[in-house]
Amino acid sequence: MIRGVIIMNDQGKPRLIKFYEFQPVEKQHELVRSIYRILCSRAENVSNFVKVDSLFGPDVRLVYKTFATLYFVFVFDNSENELAMLDLMQVFVETLDKCFSNVCELDVVFNFSKVHTILDEIILGGQVLETSSSEVVKAVEEISKMERNANSILPASWQGR
Amino acid sequence: MGSQGGFGQSKEFLDLIKSIGEARSKAEEDRIVLREIETLKARLSDPNTPKFKLKEYLIRLLYVEMLGHDASFGYIHAVKMTHDDNLLLKRTGYLTVTLFLNEDHDLIILIVNTIQKDLKSDNYLVVCAALNAVCRLINEETIPAVLPQVVELLGHQKEAVRKKAVMALHRFSQRSPGSVSHLLSNFRKRLCDNDPGVMGATLCPLFDLITLDVDKYKDLVVSFVNILKQVAERRLPKSYDYHQMPAPFIQIKLLKILAVLGSGDKKASEQMYTILGDIMRKGDSTSNIGNAILYECICCVSSLHPNAKLLEAAADAISKFLKSDSHNLKYLGIAALSRLIKISPDIAEQHQLAVIDCLEDPDDTLKRKTFELLYKMTKSSNVEVIVDRMIEYMISISDNHYKTEIASRCVELAEQFAPSNQWFIQTMNKVFEHAGDLVNAKVAHNLMRLIAEGFGEDDDTADSQLRSSAVESYLRIMGEPKLPSAFLQVICWVLGEYGTADGKYSASYITGKLCDVAEAHSADDTVKAYAVTALLKIYSFEIAAGRTVDILSECQSLIEELLASNSTDLQQRAYELQAILNVDAHAVEKIMPINSTCDDIEIDKNLAFLDGYVQQSLENGAEPYIPESERSGMLSISSFMTHEDHEPSTHTLRFEAYELPKPSLPPNAPPSSTELVPVTELSYVADIFQPTTSLPSASDSAASELKLRLDGVQKKWGRAHLLLPCPTHHFKQRHCEDSK
């Protein structure tokens, strides 16, 4: 299963942390810091996989990829295929790109809850739920629409920005 | 900033993020965040804050927690928001709750009701939001509360809901297998769902279940093969294609399942050969996902009953991976190779060069994977090269976790395949020198035992050669600074046992060296202990051999120092050493026989050799021995009724401690309203005397104590205030008065 998804920037500042097995806040930060340290020490043009059994237990590894200023990290155990995880990350990023038209770090920060919504459509409880980015976009749009409708019954001053 | 739908945030939030982004130091950032926490605290608890503002505050709170600050004060607001009827607010509530709480958090109980209600909602998005929360927040205790609804949702008309319901059920079976064991047939049913997405989702729980119990699912082999065939032949809707591959993620999951089902099962394997061959033949090695499928095929082939054709295809694919320029593919090649060599060991030889190349690669992940492969490839013919490379690498890395792993692998390989004793000792020396404090203490003991026992063959000359070479290498190494403690212990032990055994080195030379070690590591008591015991052995062997013992002055001063040591262990060893120096050769030989570390010590548990002595003493009028359990005075230990029985006869003091009070439940009866005595104290008193409560109290002699015991009884049954002993009673009364 997938143990966690982390997005952080190249300074090590977390932009999204989601673990599929509960981790207390302090532990989350320790893990993010350790992962950041590992990623920093990696040279360019090497593989995207790192074994992280010292942090998460036997047979756990992560795949990472940088997109502009962001590190995307998927942590998973040996019931997943490394290359497939890399592609799943691609699906995630593609979806973000479609939803935010040319995604950048600020989009992720400001639309934090939407990024979570997107991720929840792709991975549920540590298992891959959907791998087609157009399906995910469709689902997220539907949610947005419903939420807008819900929003429209709010007092006008609270609608959007 | 593209604010989409309801996801936009206010200017305040924007400013917060900006100021955090511009913060120059961690301290400045912390100040900003703490100020934000104060703001949020005030606003969240303000009853006049409009609901829709609350939503943003919760998101901000989430952000604050992500930055590592405590946000627990706001959890309750997140819980409250899940109760809202507005979808936007509800979803925000669920999102924050799933990120804030774990499934055992006390607040969960407040959400279960809402989840139950939402699972029945007409709006499928509400149902989906609730299912998301179910996956994260429901624990073993709360599963029954939502289980019926989740099962019902497996038949929901929307495929998105069915998919999530499958996942939720899977989560339950992970959490608490027993609670859903009767529902597992639902997964089989969903495998035939007419939506491929739902079918794909069902593969996740099935994979887990099959891994746990293969035999139960053998009947599904045909179905899985058929599904895989349909997918590979592009019979799924185009929308499931990814980079021109038909539903690759489903294919990969299926291949994983087939690997488990076919492992060690010839009949099942044979059903899979055709489709595997087809997929590998058609495989697309230009795209990432194509290679992922190829790799999964190799994994599957190597776990099935072997098939020559498929193995050949797998070997071809591996060589393509290894020759690739991409590090990811090289990594997969190595990983695939280490699976395949299990069933076809010769394939490794063809790729030896490529594998060795990977060791030179700057990529650490690749190197580690390669060492894992090499570890599996090691034979007696290549052990020297491989272990040398491993040690070289071990020295170069600083990650202790991994260093330990490599060190223990080196040891294991060396023990298993060592071509010569000399090499073995040298290898172990290197491992100990560089990772001595990381390897398991057992390894050190194994090494000592190995040197003592030799290699098991009954070849004494080989054994003594081994020992001599060990002694020689240790004498060379031991002068080096910063040797790990474990290694020094081995050195001292070996020098003590075998330092003078072959006559090459004199006793005074060895003892001098041992003293140097003890002096150089004066802070390490264990090393000193090993050193002084080694001294003792050397001296005893000298005495036993009839040579005069000439104690070096440095040894003398070491012994004297240890005689006054703070450590009793060191003192004892020093005294023993001193004592042995004054014993004659014959006795010393008995105490410290040469080369006898491996002899088994037979223990005469009946002490039969004392029989004659005992008999003689009895004849001389000694009292016969009475086993402990039969001694009258000792009865008090085993039975708690001693006082009544023995008080008249034995007027001695009892020295045995009372049994420790067991932690027990508070008294059964609820305390009366006036009772202000802390419950724990009550139960403590009651407990000490509890054993006696079961006894009829007949003897008057123990009357004063009986009162105390009755106290236990009374408390136990609740009418404590009637017959309480004084101290507690007073305490109570005082409290009562206070409260008046």
UniProtKB/TrEMBL annotation, chain A:
Keywords for the protein's UniProt record, in alphabetical order: Membrane, Protein transport, Transport
Name of this chain's protein: AP complex subunit sigma
Localization annotation: Endomembrane system
PANTHER family with a match to the protein in the record: ADAPTOR COMPLEXES SMALL SUBUNIT FAMILY
Keyword Cell division: no
UniProt superkingdom: Eukaryota
Pfam families the record matches: Clat_adaptor_s
GO CC annotation: endomembrane system; membrane coat
Record-linked PROSITE patterns: CLAT_ADAPTOR_S
Automatic annotation (TrEMBL), chain B:
Location relative to the cell: Endomembrane system
Segments passing through the bilayer: none
Chief location category: membrane
Highest rank taxon of the organism: Eukaryota
One Gene Ontology term, aspect cellular component: endomembrane system
Domain Clathrin/coatomer adaptor adaptin-like N-terminal residue range list: 40-582
Keywords carried by this UniProt record: Golgi apparatus, Membrane, Protein transport, Transport
Entry's Gene Ontology BP terms: intracellular protein transport
MF (Gene Ontology): cargo adaptor activity
Family named by the database record: Belongs to the adaptor complexes large subunit family.
Function, as annotated: Subunit of novel type of clathrin- or non-clathrin-associated protein coat involved in targeting proteins from the trans-Golgi network (TGN) to the endosomal-lysosomal system.
Assembly: Adaptor protein complex 4 (AP-4) is a heterotetramer composed of two large adaptins, a medium adaptin and a small adaptin.
Protein name: AP-4 complex subunit epsilon
